[in-house]
Specification:
- The protein is of the alpha+beta class and 425 residues long.
- The protein has one domain.
- The strands form four sheets. Strands 6, 11, 13, 14, 15, 17, 18, 20 and 21 form a nine-stranded antiparallel β-sheet that branches. A seven-stranded antiparallel β-sheet has the order 10-9-8-7-16-5-19, with no helix packed on it.
- The longest helix has 44 residues.
Length: 425
């Protein structure tokens, strides 16, 4: 018999060599993949982070860049290359500056206090510039992909389930998204306003968020939905911390390919030099302590057709050009106000991510979170009380909403909750 041991040895050596070559090949591929991703991220950061006239370090670790108003991300849009910036709206809604004129006897004993943004402690941006929160590499890397950074996750929209309203809030009935809202529908709306109580809800998982906002909605509940949104949010995934931050969002195709948070894509044109989208709000409300709130107004300019955003009585932040939208180029068909959380637990179970203050509506002022002085803008550009105000929540044992009205707060509601509790699995 011949000696096969030498052949077996050679085959063994060859197998080891091939195995090592395979590992080297995989290692090279992995390094190339990481290198390609880093290049993509860097290119995206170069697009987002515009050259700054001045930079301000915020106490919370943010860097706010003061960017020349004509160099902001909006003007990356091909339709805005020759756009002339409109530095003020042609019209404000009628009644905007006198809707809170009430007698001293009607005023509440506890008035809410003014708010600011943390970065203001270390400086302001000069006139002719706008403040933009600088995006870091780790911000983009937290997203599922470079393309998806700054966008809401695309979700299929099912047929509306039977509810005391025609559609699900945020127009989704996807497991994980929970809401407690008030809404109006059935008319043409040209804007909405609310004063929103500001809290810092606790988020259990880093991929969850909690927000309080108003929605301006147009179109069907399919893939052509138009939405403009503004309010405050806590989103560790988007910002890398648990701070309460001012935010906006828009989409013209149900969150598929258009739109983004804040200034993370071209679209919204900012004109204000003092308020930074996505920057931390300070101070925030605390249980049985002083309460803080912010006033948000979105309305359609009757002359130009753009949708304008105002923060408080003093800050007209900018506008969404009308060409961004299909249905909202005319008017909105639904307005929503309220809270939303993302819950990452499957099969109807809940985490303890809080909405609003984390307390149920029946606890009332300084304990539960509120929206007050909620109004809509009608076709005559008048601010007026909403007619036929409805409410909706998927699971009232987890998050709930209760409406009311009085002389000073007009139409208002308390909302929110703790999520997981003995009555909420």
């Amino acid at each position: 018999m011949g000696d096969f041991s030498g052949g077996r040895t050679r085959r063994g050596v060859l197998l080891v060599v091939f195995w090592m070559l395979g590992l080297i090949s995989l290692s090279c591929a992995a390094r190339l993949s990481v290198s390609k991703q880093k290049l993509q991220v860097q290119k995206h950061l170069n697009r987002l982070n515009k050259a700054a006239v001045k930079s301000i370090k915020s106490p919370d670790g943010d860097i706010v860049d003061c960017v020349h108003i004509s160099h902001q991300p909006a003007f990356d849009h091909p339709f805005l290359k020759d756009h002339k910036i409109q530095m003020r709206p042609n019209y404000h809604p009628e009644g905007l500056f006198d809707d809170n004129k009430v007698s001293d006897t009607e005023k509440p004993k506890q008035r809410s206090n003014p708010l600011t943004q943390l970065w203001h402690m270390n400086g302001k941006c000069p006139q002719g510039t706008i403040p933009i929160r600088r995006i870091k590499e780790e911000d983009v890397l937290r997203a599922s992909s470079v393309k998806r950074y700054g966008r809401k996750k695309h979700r299929a929209i099912p047929q509306p389930i039977p509810q005391p309203r025609s559609a699900d809030p945020d127009l989704m009935n996807e497991s994980g998204h929970q809401h407690a809202i008030a809404y109006v529908e059935g008319d043409k709306y040209y804007g909405a306003k609310a004063t929103i109580n500001v809290w810092e809800p606790k988020i259990q998982q880093p991929n969850e968020f909690s927000l309080s906002q108003l929605w301006i909605l147009g179109g069907s509940f399919g893939e052509d939905l138009n939405s403009i949104e503004a309010g405050w949010q806590v989103s560790p995934d988007l910002y890398g911390d648990n701070n309460t931050r001012l935010f906006t969002y828009w989409t013209s195709d149900a969150y598929q390919a258009t739109g983004c948070y804040n200034l993370l894509c071209s679209g919204f044109i900012q004109i204000d030099s003092e308020i930074a989208m996505g920057a931390s709000i300070s101070p925030v409300s605390a249980y049985r302590n002083p309460q803080y709130d912010i006033s948000m107004l979105v309305w359609k300019d009757p002359k130009e057709g753009h949708w304008w955003l105002q923060f408080g009585n003093d800050y007209v932040l900018g506008y969404w050009p009308s060409f961004l939208f299909s249905y909202l180029a005319d008017s909105a068909s639904m307005i929503e106000w309220g809270g939303e959380v993302v819950n990452s637990e499957p099969d109807g179970h809940h985490t303890s991510t809080q909405m609003g203050s984390g307390h149920f509506p029946e606890e009332g002022f300084a304990k539960s979170s509120y929206f007050r002085n909620i109004q809509v803008v009608d076709d005559s550009n008048n601010l007026k009380a909403p007619k036929g105000l409805g409410t909706f929540t998927e699971q009232s044992n987890c998050y709930d909403v209760q409406t009311g009205s009085n002389g000073d707060w007009g139409h208002y509601f308390y909302y929110g909750g703790p999520g997981k509790n003995p009555n909420c699995p």
